Structure formats: structure tokens, C-alpha cells
Amino acid sequence: MRVFTGIQPSGTLHIANYFGSIKQMVELQDSNELFMFIADYHALTSLKDPKALRENTMDVAISYLSLGIDPSKTTMWVQSDVKEVLELYWILSAYTPMGLLERAHSYKDKVAKGILANHALFSYPVLMAADILLYDAQIVPVGKDQIQHVEITRDIAIKFNNDHGEIFTLPKFKVDESVASVPGIDGAKMSKSYGNTIDIFMTEKALKKQTGKIVTQSVAMEDPKEYKDCNVYELSKLFMNDDELKELQERYKRGGEGHGHFKMTLKEKIWDYFEEARTKRAYFQEHTDEVMDILNEGAKKASHLAKEKMQLVRESVGIYR
Ligand code: ADP
Ligand code: TRP
After folding, report:
1. Burial of 10 by CB count in 10 Å (0-12 exposed, 13-18 middle, 19+ buried)?
2. Ligand 1 test: best mutation among 8, 21, 149, most atoms within 8 Å of CB?
3. What are residue 75's DSSP bridge partners?
4. For residue range 281-310, what is the model confidence (pLDDT) as tens digits?
5. Which among 104, 113, 166, 276 is placed 20 to 30 Å from 121, CA to CA?
């Protein structure tokens, strides 16, 4: 299966990004053809700082490579390296009813939050459709907020195919229901926008500080504690095997330790868990030329597919060459 995903270069990755998405990608690349690109054109809808966009683009590539994306299995590139996507975006725009975009939740939500909408934000789903359709993606793993964008992609593809024959493959979205929502340090869903994240590549000192801030019940040191629904325990579940969890449960039940002790244990587990990724990241940060080579190689492969598809599309609509 050709599995396809776009990542917004929007800054620091947190542990919920890892357990909610990146880990699945790393597993998927073994038995599928994984295509992964960094959506820098999409990021322009909200990010207007050129230095930050440039740095985030490289940073996200380095992070994914460090966390296990293997360029010998996965095609990874930067969206703007394959300009055909913008041509397809325009052509698809002519097959996109306004109503389809006006109904998009993600657009409506942003406007409701008072974000001043520009045209790119409104037409964001058409560019996303171009990403997906250009490369004949079959499966698009998404978070719930992105399901509608894949449905819009299908609608646009069906409209185009009705007029011109089977030019585009209809993609299916895939939501991994087995992934529970990871709580943040305040117990609400972990999210950049809530400022409650634990970031993957924090310094040890910052990690200690952040895990120290996890909200817990206030119970006297000597008393037994409830591990169910405790934010520290919920986060520990991601990093511990069954035996370790049993032992942690015993420590909660026994009393004599405060939540601060459980937080320290969690901090150690998180720190160890990402140790290999940290080492790889430090390596890539020193060898950005290798990262560029990987992105260039990915762009070459993606470009080849994009050129083939665009030839068909141009012929279909009457662009003269
Ligand atoms: P944020 O809410 O921090 O902006 P994103 O929307 O960029 O995060 O998330 C990217 C992906 O990471 C999501 O599609 C989802 O798969 C995963 N993810 C983010 N937050 C969580 C969470 N709290 N629990 C589980 N998965 C999450
Ligand atoms: N909209 C996606 C997000 O915000 C990123 C994205 C852009 C994407 N194009 C895509 C995801 C194509 C999957 C397929 O997360």
C-alpha cells in the first residue's frame, strides 16, 4: 500500500506527537511504501517568519530521521521541492465547489477563534488534495481533525474523474483508534496550543522541571495514593512495560512516597526512552549535508511521479503542453 502523510513544520515535537503519530509511521514503513513530506507551503498559511520556517523545515526532517524514519524505506521530501503540486492545486481549484470549502471544519474553527483568514487558509484543503492525488496515495493516516480534508480530496477527485476518466486514485483515511489521547501536564489533551506539552528533545533539566509541574492530587507523603486517573501514572504507562507498571502501582498503594518520587521515575523513563533519538539528532544537526542529500533524493523520486501524473492531468484539461 502507498501510505502518505504530510507534516507541518510547526516547531517542537512533544511526546503525544510521538505516541499518537510518529511511532505508527515508523512501524508502517516496514510493510508499506511510505511517502512523507514536510508541508512548508501549508505552513505559510500561519507562519510568517522566514527564519522560523526555514529552521523548522530542517528541524522536522532531523527529528523524524532521529525518531526512526529510515530513508532507505521511506521517501521523504520537502513539499516546495516539487512545484507540480502548485499547478495541480490550481487545476483542482477549478473542480472545487466553494460550498465544499465553506463547510470545512478546520477553516470554520480557525475563523471562529478570531484568526484573520487569508485565501490560503481557505483553500488549504485543495492544496492538501493536490498533495495526495499527485502521488496516487492509497492510505492517508490522520488525526480526527484531518478526516474531512481527506473526504474533500475524494470529492474533488471524483468530480475530476467523472469528467476525465480514472486519472486519480481515491485515497482512504486511516484513523488509529487504538491510540488513546495522551494527556498533558495539566491532564487536558496534550497540545502545543494548550502549553501543556512534554517535548521530546528537551534538555534533561527542562524535562525535570516540566515533569515536576504535572498536576497531581495532594495527599500526605505517608498515605497510600490512587494511581488510577493520576496524570503521572497515565504518562508512565507510555514508557513502562507490565512489570514496571505493577511495581509502580505497588509504590502508589504502599504510601511513604510522594508524587514527586513518581515524577522522578517518569522523568528517568522519558529521558532513557529517547536516548538513541537524541544521539541521532545530535549527529544530524552536525551533518545537515546528509539530511539535505536525503531530502534531495526524496524530492527526485517524488518529482518523477509528479511529472508523470501532471502530464495526464494537463492532457485531460487541455493545457497545451
Ligand atoms: P498539537 O495539538 O500539539 O498542535 P498536532 O495537531 O500538530 O499537535 O498533532 C500532530 C499529530 O500528533 C496528530 O495528528 C495526532 O496524531 C498526534 N497527537 C497530537 N496530540 C495528541 C494527543 N494529545 N494524544 C494523541 N495523539 C496526539
Ligand atoms: N494538513 C495536515 C496537518 O495539518 C498536513 C498535510 C498537508 C497533510 N498535506 C497533507 C497530511 C497530505 C496528509 C496528507 O497535519
Report:
1. middle
2. 21
3. 35
4. 999 999 999 999 999 999 999 999 999 999
5. 166
pLDDT surpassing 90 at residue 179: no
| Cβ neighbours of residue 298 closer than 8 Å, sequence gap 6 or more | 37, 71, 75, 76, 77
For the residues 151-157, what does the mean pLDDT come to?
A: 98
Banded pLDDT at 70 (limits 50, 70, 90): very high
Cβ of 6 less than 6 Å from ligand 2: yes
Q: State the distance from the centre of ligand 2 to the C-alpha of 7, rounded, in angstroms.
A: 6
Parallel, antiparallel or unpaired: strands 2-7 and 33-38:
parallel
Q: Which-ligand-closest: CA of 173?
A: 2
Report pLDDT digits (tens) over 107-135: 999 899 898 889 999 999 999 999 999 99
Q: Is 192 a catalytic residue?
A: yes
Known catalytic residue at 189 = yes
Count CB atoms within 10 A of the CB of residue 191. 15
Interval between CA 160 and ligand 1 midpoint (Å): 32
Nearest CA to ligand 1 atom 13: 143
- Topology, domain 202-273: Tyrosyl-Transfer RNA Synthetase (1.10.240)
- Ligand closest to 22 (CA) is 1
Predicted TM-score (pTM) of this structure: 0.94
Domain ranges (residues) in the chain? 2-182+288-317, 202-273
Ligand 2 pocket, residue 132 CB under 6 Å: yes
Beta bridge partners of 14: 199
